[in-house]
Amino acid sequence: MAPVFAHGQLRLYLLSLLESGPKHGYELMTALSDRFGGTYRPSAGTIYPRLARLEEEGLVVRVDEERKSTYALTDAGRAELAARSADLAELEEGIAETVRDRAEAVRDDVRGSMRGLRADLAAAAQQARATAVQHAAGKPDDPHLASHVRRADAEAMIGRFRDELRADLRRADAQGKVEQLTVETLRAVLDSALSAVRQTLR
User: Model's pTM, two decimal places?
Assistant: First the structure.
């Protein structure tokens, strides 16, 4: 996937984000992530060196507050923004296009994941049916055995899915990385899975 910002563009965009008021580095990362709909989240290693350079250039000032540092525009920073308003407008247009492209790529990935999930569900159902038939062959007088085996297999899969995904979500949440896109993707995949499975139960 192509880089989000060309040379010097992130520097300019950080200045624009500070125009509304002082912000912590984490707030700037979150604002950037929100601007890109969660499809891009810059790392601390990307943001803080640029903030330090802006501070060296006299365009922002850093105020240390306990464990956090707040960054604010200086008069020189505001003058830089005013002088480059045309560049900023062009950058905003480019970001809008990038967001559209990335959103489409994510939708394609989600559609692919949903197709893969349906295939996995079909394969698992087929395996469960085969297992049930094998068990039922040993006890022909028990008409509910095959159904019971399939239900147990299905519930075990649901349990594994829930436990693994919950652990992944909690790890991501500890790092502040659970995006709205994650929730929307999960909702789309689960809704599709629920619909597909319910069709087999009719």
Answer: 0.49
Rounded mean pLDDT, 189-201: 81
Residue whose token pair is 């349990």? 159
Q: Which helix (H) or strand (E) holds 70?
A: strand 68-73
Which residue is it, tokens 């979500």? 169
Reduced to 3 states (helix: H, G, I; strand: E, B; else coil), residue 134 is helix
Check: CB of residue 35 under 8 Å from CB of residue 179: no
Rounded Cα distance between 195 and 25, Å, is 42
CATH of 9-83, one of 1.10.10.60, 1.10.287.3510, 2.40.50.140, 1.10.10.10: 1.10.10.10
Q: Which two tokens stand for residue 146?
A: 């095959």
Residue 64 to residue 38: CA distance in whole angstroms: 28
